[in-house]
């Protein structure tokens, strides 16, 4: 506050869902403090604000409180947003003269797309004047449950007659993509499969490579299910 002039930098932190949002906001605040520059937080959702589920609304509330506590310049909520994420980020970056953008790389978040070439290339064309910080964030996972599971790996559930089984190579047929947490000390594919659906993480139990409750995921396999 004793500075005569703030730097020309301006930071935007993109948060989407989950506990990692707080970590990213604090990371952005630390950088903004070092650079003595304004900090903006952005979250984007296809649904209108009043249609957010309890979990998402809870995060919005926590992030709002944290932004107030840290003296964030503005918490930008872009709800009911149907455009591609990169368009929204680019527009926000231009509107607020952003020079640095921080996003989290997480398997359970659609911000993960930013690490894939096509998304990043589009974004760089949209906002060529911005520096990007892609922060690796810990997954909210069953890793924390007494250490009974190995580190999560990308996996897919496919239909096998009336059953559903797990595979670790991307199949050409209809599938469900997620993260598999294998139980420690088992030679079989026993564990928990987590996947995003309707803006939250869901989990199903896998035993010896097969989903033990196929009815839980039947509706997610579309019209192929009789």
TrEMBL record:
This is Universal stress protein family protein. GO terms for cellular component: plasma membrane. One of its GO terms (molecular function) is phosphorelay sensor kinase activity. It comes from Ureibacillus acetophenoni.
């Amino acid at each position: 506050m004793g500075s005569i002039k703030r730097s020309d930098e301006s930071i935007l932190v993109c948060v989407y869902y989950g506990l990692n949002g707080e970590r990213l906001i604090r990371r952005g605040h630390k950088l903004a403090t070092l650079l003595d520059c304004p900090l903006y937080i952005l979250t984007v959702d296809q649904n209108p604000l009043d249609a957010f589920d309890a979990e998402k609304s809870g995060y919005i509330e926590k992030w709002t409180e944290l932004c107030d506590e840290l003296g964030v310049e503005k918490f930008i909520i872009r709800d009911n947003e149907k455009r591609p994420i990169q368009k929204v980020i680019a527009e926000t970056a231009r509107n607020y003269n952003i020079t640095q953008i921080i996003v989290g790389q997480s398997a359970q978040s659609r911000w993960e797309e930013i690490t894939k070439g096509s998304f990043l290339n589009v974004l760089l064309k949209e906002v060529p004047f911005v520096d990007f910080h892609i922060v690796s964030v810990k997954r909210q996972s069953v890793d924390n449950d007494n250490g009974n599971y190995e580190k999560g790996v990308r996996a897919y559930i496919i239909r096998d007659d009336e059953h559903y089984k797990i595979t670790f190579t991307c199949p050409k047929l209809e599938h469900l993509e997620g993260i598999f947490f294998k139980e420690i000390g088992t030679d079989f594919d026993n564990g928990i499969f987590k996947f995003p659906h309707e803006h939250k993480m869901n989990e199903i139990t896998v035993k010896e490579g097969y989903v033990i409750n196929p009815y839980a995921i039947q509706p997610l396999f579309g019209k192929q299910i009789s």
